[in-house]
Write a structure and sequence with these properties.
The protein has about 140 residues and is mainly α. It folds into two domains: about 80 residues, no CATH class; about 45 residues. The chain contains four helices and two strands. Strands 1-2 form a two-stranded antiparallel sheet. The longest helix is centred in the last third of the chain and has 35 residues. The protein is rod-shaped and about 115 Å long. Bound molecules: zinc ion (ZN) (2 copies). One zinc ion binds next to helix 1. The site of one zinc ion (ZN) has 8 residues, from helix 1.
Length: about 140
């Protein structure tokens, strides 16, 4: 019979699938449900706000992430597709590139709009330019 030391409280217990003693495992389950519920409501929550809000230990959260049961924005590196900087979870671009893109889109729209205006102005001019001479 193998024994293991609980990773959380240090208690010795019979080895099983978990690295925690039954007590901590049960408590961890409660924590897990609370954390998951919190993340459902606050998808962008960081480790710090999460631990603050629920009063759980950071190790508890890290362990759940380690076990693959939780996915947190802070634990998942999200790379900006444009500059390779750190992007927010769920975003393809970092904040800086998003602002830049937004600005360039806006200026592109302005260019497009002004060229359309010029285009229609010269179109309108055409009609009046070619006036037919009615009589010789
Ligand atoms: Zn324990
Ligand atoms: Zn970027």
């Amino acid at each position: 019979m193998e024994i293991e030391t609980c990773r959380q409280c240090g208690k010795v217990f019979m080895k099983r699938t978990s690295v925690l003693c039954p007590d901590c495992a049960r408590r961890g389950e409660d924590d897990f449900l609370a954390i998951r519920g919190y993340l459902d409501e606050h998808p962008g929550a960081t480790m710090m706000t999460l631990c603050d809000a629920l009063g759980v230990a950071e190790e508890t959260v890290s362990r759940l992430i380690e076990e693959g049961r939780l996915v947190m924005s802070g634990s998942q590196r999200n790379r900006c597709e444009s500059c390779g900087g750190e992007a927010q979870f769920g975003q393809k671009l970092c904040l800086r590139c998003r602002v830049q893109l937004d600005q360039s889109l806006r200026s592109a729209a302005n260019v497009l709009r002004s060229s359309l205006k010029e285009g229609s102005a010269s179109d309108a001019g055409k009609g009046s330019y070619y006036t037919r001479r009615d009589r010789d």
